[in-house]
Amino acid sequence: MQAALPHGIPTNVPPKNSPSGDPRHNDQAKNDQPKNDQPKNDQPRIDPPQNDPREKLIVALDVSTAAAAQKIVAAVGDSAFTYKVGMQLYTAEGPQLVRDLVASGRRVFLDLKYHDIPNTVAAAVRQAAQLGVSMLTVHATGSAKMLRAAADAARAANPTLIVLAVTVLTSMDEADLEKVGINGTVVDEVLRLASLALENGCQGIVASGHEASALRKSLGNDFVIVTPGVRPAGAGHADQARVLTPAEAIKAGASHIVVGRPITEAADPAAEAQSILRQIGQ
Ligand code: C5P
């Protein structure tokens, strides 16, 4: 029987180290000893086989209660290692939910998109590192100084913590960019901000599948690309005009995909996750 944590999250035994796709995964992560201020996790660890497609899948917990999140995590079972906690769930349930996920052996991608003065962002990154998150987001438009402060704070607290930069929100088009004072195409802005983030120590970028290939072409393969907004093959695209399937996103250059509702609202979330894993494992 699985032990339950305060938020009711059943324990699990996935691996803890940085997700594959992290360019530092094999060398640096192996050498880095956990810091004393990292949360203790006494769960046994199982190293996944190499090229385990679960390394590439992140399930978005876009719900408002710990109970709803716990239900999804339990339903997905061992079909995913990493869960995205965004501003909705974090605002509702706070850091304890993150601690509980980490203590249960899950990895957490904390998607709070920090954007503030460098000192404040660095302090927030240190707190996120203390929670034990594996990945977090900052806005690339916060400046080179802010990106550097975030990356340095992360590295000092936990060298395997991946700082991802958000460039242009996928909800923005050229007209929206122009209204906030940016002229040019979305893809040019994405490339400009992505290089700024990578030059200043960030390990990756959050990017749509359509941007992923442009990023790989211009900036190479030595960084993480996390791609949301994918829809499993065969799923109705309904409200989404421009979506890629999981396999298309990986082919375009994504190292990780974020999938929310197709898994969380499925009648059988584990089966849906397994189907996506098959699609990206080929
Ligand atoms: O649409 P879905 O439920 O799979 O979304 C999962 C996550 O990806 C959400 O947290 C959403 O914020 C993010 N997303 C995004 N850009 C999109 C679509 C979704 O960042 N175009």
Structural account:
This protein is of the alpha/beta class and 282 residues long. It has a single domain (52-281), classed as TIM Barrel (Alpha-Beta Barrel), CATH 3.20.20. The chain is built from 12 helices and 8 strands. The chain has helices at residues 28-31, 66-76, 87-93, 95-103, 118-131, 144-157, 174-179, 186-199, 209-219, 246-252, 261-264, 269-281; strands at residues 57-60, 82-86, 107-114, 135-139, 162-166, 204-206, 224-227, 256-259. The chain has an 8-stranded parallel β-barrel, surrounded by 7 helices. Helix 6 (144-157) links the parallel strand 4 and strand 5 (162-166). Helix 5 (118-131) packs parallel to helix 6 (144-157), helix 8 (186-199) crosses helix 9 and helix 9 (209-219) runs parallel beside helix 10 (246-252). It is globular and about 45 Å long. The chain starts with 27 loop residues before the first helix and ends with a helix. Residues 13-48 have low confidence and may be disordered. The protein binds cytidine-5'-monophosphate. Cytidine-5'-monophosphate binds at residues 60, 62, 86, 170, 228-229, 258-262. Cytidine-5'-monophosphate binds next to strand 8 and helix 11.
CATH fold title: TIM Barrel
Compute the number of helices: 12
Largest sheet: 8 strands, parallel, barrel
- The overall strand count is 8
CATH arch. level architecture: Alpha-Beta Barrel
Per DSSP, what share of the residues sits in E-state strands of 2 or more residues? 5-15%
**Name of the CATH first level:** Alpha Beta
Number of spatially distinct domains:
1
The secondary structure category is alpha/beta
CATH homologous superfamily grouping: Aldolase class I
